[in-house]
Write a structure and sequence with these properties.
By secondary structure, this protein is α+β, with helices and mostly antiparallel strands. It has helices at about 25, 30-40, 80-95, 100, 115-125, 130-140, 150-155, 160-214, and strands at about 1-10, 15-20, 50, 55-65, 65-75, 150.
Length: about 210
């Protein structure tokens, strides 16, 4: 289930926030944690991430100095939550001008009318078992973008940064490429070891035959 959705500028200004009324009181205690996480996000941070605590998962998509946030139950599929946020991001950035939503004169909750779109979209994503959502999830599984998962307590209280998560992601991709190259080299070495003697013997015989009949 998706409990709350927010669009926040990296300077901390909330442009729009939509909260499930039934969960509003319970989620109040997490607002400060969400604010602290947003403060740690920079333009160089991992562009898509899911951050867990014991009961909820906070997902975000970062684009053009805006952070699109969804808070879901912990069992809600991460890929599906990020697809939902991508839909919200695409609609918001299509509906409003960049110069307007990045203006320093903007007031908090300036785009509250956008809640209507969020609420409509959220309804189509609420049941992660629905056929349409399973189709979206299957499509997202084909996406090679790495989704970093981090424990929210580690992030807030042990000093780990979202930039560090991005560095970890880059190192994982580099290591993956390095191991792939090593695997190709090892396969060639095994082939040479297995079939090399036969190839060498065949080459010697061919040279002898050519020399004899030349």
């Amino acid at each position: 289930m998706i409990y709350t959705t927010q669009i926040v500028r990296l300077d901390g200004l909330i442009l729009v926030a939509s909260v499930d009324d039934q969960q509003a009181q319970e989620l109040g205690e997490l607002k400060s944690q969400i604010r602290q996480v947003v403060k740690r996000i920079t333009p160089q941070s991992e562009p898509r991430a899911s951050i867990e605590n014991s009961k909820y998962t906070m997902h975000y998509v970062l684009n053009d100095s805006l952070c699109y946030i969804a808070l879901t139950e912990k069992s809600y599929p991460k890929k599906l939550a990020l697809t939902y946020l991508e839909d919200v991001r695409a609609e918001f950035q299509t509906s409003y001008k960049r110069d307007d939503y990045l203006s320093p004169q903007l007031r908090p909750y300036q785009y509250s009318e956008f809640e209507r779109f969020i609420d409509r979209t959220k309804k189509t994503y609420q049941d992660s078992r629905a056929t349409d959502n399973l189709s979206r999830l299957n499509d997202e599984l084909k996406d090679v973008t790495t989704v970093m998962t981090k424990n929210i307590e580690d992030l807030l209280y042990r000093g780990d940064s979202l930039d560090k998560m991005g560095d970890m992601s880059s190192r994982l991709r580099e290591d993956s490429a390095k191991y792939k190259r090593a695997a190709v080299r090892i396969n060639w070495e095994l082939l040479l070891k297995q079939y090399g003697p036969f190839g060498a013997l065949g080459l010697v015989m061919l040279i002898l035959i050519i020399w004899r009949f030349w």
